[in-house]
């Protein structure tokens, strides 16, 4: 076992290198909480790429978020050395690397951080003096446990597996104004959202026409409109679904910041989503959700809250983990609109929405 020698004190300064994808970052929040539990008096800084900063903003276990300005001050090349120097000025005592890349270990090494903890993957063994041997069994479980094992392998305690997300109170106020303006905040009116996009190719995406049909059915039954979520790259997809859904949707894809999207998800009564970062954001806020799962590993990246259900149809080629389906996308094609509607109705009826 690779024991951490750092002792808790008000002078201790710990760096947590964040994962680079929103969903992965959300799944590391139990690690952040556990680090605080082990070092209640230490200063904890998270180093994060700009697009995942909202995951850690307002987190009570984090004292500082240090932005990795990969397209600016810290751009690859001289920027890497500049970032290492910026990190060195912070005088960290311990670096805990959630990201497995060689670069993450190199930065911690160049920053002269005395204890550098992470998995021994990607030729990093010589750069990490608290090096954790990768147990192949971890690859077969959930990513939350994969991340937490970095701590337990170093003799540190965990503090539960629950995800955490803390939207900005100003974003919550914006959400209420938005819902009031769209007449979605009345009594007996469920607030519903769909997330038809997903990063990394189309293989993870249920079909737009089926999302449109789903939205139409839910809007008609519950006398409401369905909010479409997504990033800037999903705006056209949202427009396409809105057109097919004949007025049943409000397309907010690409029209909010990520922090506002988190807050808006937190106000939903039900979220329907592909496997995505926003799926984990909903899980972190204990939002009822139906996750439509096709090509991805439903064990490793399942939504971690109890009030989530996965709708999936096992096929021989799934999970393939491919970006694009090379054949007939059968894993998604076998998931019908009626299957997803039934899962949605079960949640909404349980919460007292009769439709």
TrEMBL record:
Which GO molecular function entries does the Swiss-Prot or TrEMBL record give? ADP-heptose-lipopolysaccharide heptosyltransferase activity
Q: Name one GO cellular component term.
A: cytosol
Checking Gene3D superfamilies in the record gives: Glycogen Phosphorylase B
Could you list the residue ranges that cross the membrane?
none
Which reaction does this enzyme catalyse, per its entry?
Answer: an L-alpha-D-Hep-(1->5)-[alpha-Kdo-(2->4)]-alpha-Kdo-(2->6)-lipid A + ADP-L-glycero-beta-D-manno-heptose = an L-alpha-D-Hep-(1->3)-L-alpha-D-Hep-(1->5)-[alpha-Kdo-(2->4)]-alpha-Kdo-(2->6)-lipid A + ADP + H(+)
Task: Write the Enzyme Commission number(s) for this entry.
Answer: 2.4.99.24
| Cited Pfam families | Glyco_transf_9
Identify the InterPro entries for this entry: Glyco_trans_9, LPS_LOS_Heptosyltrfase, RfaF
What GO biological process, any one, is recorded here? lipopolysaccharide core region biosynthetic process
| Keyword vocabulary terms for this entry | Glycosyltransferase, Transferase
Query: Which top class of enzyme applies to this chain?
Result: transferase
Protein family membership? Belongs to the glycosyltransferase 9 family.
Q: What is the designated name of this protein? A: lipopolysaccharide heptosyltransferase II
Tell me what organism the protein belongs to.
Desulfobacter latus
